[in-house]
Amino acid sequence: MFIDFSIKDLIDILLVAYLLYQTYRLMKDSGSINIFIGILVFIGIWLIVSQVLEMKLLGSIFDKLVSVGVLALIILFQDDIRRFLVTLGSHKQLGRFFRFLTGNKQEKTEKADIMPIVLACMSMSKGKVGALIVIEKAVPLNDIIRTGEIINANVNQRLIENIFFKNSPLHDGAMIIRHKRIEAAGCILPVSHDLNIPKELGLRHRAAMGVSQETDALAIIVSEETGGISVAYKGQFHLRLTAEELERILTKED
């Protein structure tokens, strides 16, 4: 007796395996790996009860639990699901494909575009002036921009330093740079509650991590306590950066 196995079945298995792997990574990053294992165990029991043992009453109860459980999981992990979709949508190859369909061209980051930012960060680092600069990429930051004051000015070293000067009314918030222009300042960012963030890192670092987890934006932090320069991007920190390292990260193509 031959098993009826086609290419379509192979693709089906590979897609399910990929989906399970991405779900595992999502749960692992959010510290919910035990929930993921529990879900797999529950699904296994449900399949055995309904498909193998064909217990109608218990199977129907499990069916109801699964239908309700999916909605509960979506509500419980809405932030993690949003992060996964953002990561998927900002993927390099997918981004190029959709830009090709829509006719939009990606703006290439030149050295001249980021040098005012690098020089301003180095100057503020020497004076231990706290700063938080967010550079928008594919995901629009309209909701965050609305929380601050619209600037709409060219990226300028002096302007950046003046905005984050300690007596400035906008120095506590984040600056948003969009399309090579300073769009807004004094903006409020979502704060990350990730327990893996080192204790010595302050609120600016947590806000930078929060926006890097929820969007594909790149956030630059200048520490008011140490003067250290850091970058949060794609949910990862790059700490204690030199001017050359910061320049390389900002000009690196995704």
TrEMBL record:
GO terms for molecular function: adenylate cyclase activity; ATP binding; diadenylate cyclase activity. It is an enzyme of class 2 (transferase). The keyword Cell division does not apply. It catalyses: 2 ATP = 3',3'-c-di-AMP + 2 diphosphate. Its EC number is 2.7.7.85. One of its GO terms (biological process) is cAMP biosynthetic process. The chain crosses the membrane at residues 33-53, 59-77. Coiled coil: none annotated. Residues 78-243 form the DAC domain. PROSITE patterns: DAC. Keywords: ATP-binding, Cell membrane, Membrane, Nucleotide-binding, Nucleotidyltransferase, Transferase, Transmembrane, Transmembrane helix. It comes from the Bacteria. Catalyzes the condensation of 2 ATP molecules into cyclic di-AMP (c-di-AMP), a second messenger used to regulate differing processes in different bacteria. Belongs to the adenylate cyclase family. DacA/CdaA subfamily. PANTHER family: DIADENYLATE CYCLASE. Probably a homodimer. This is Diadenylate cyclase. It comes from Phocaeicola sartorii.
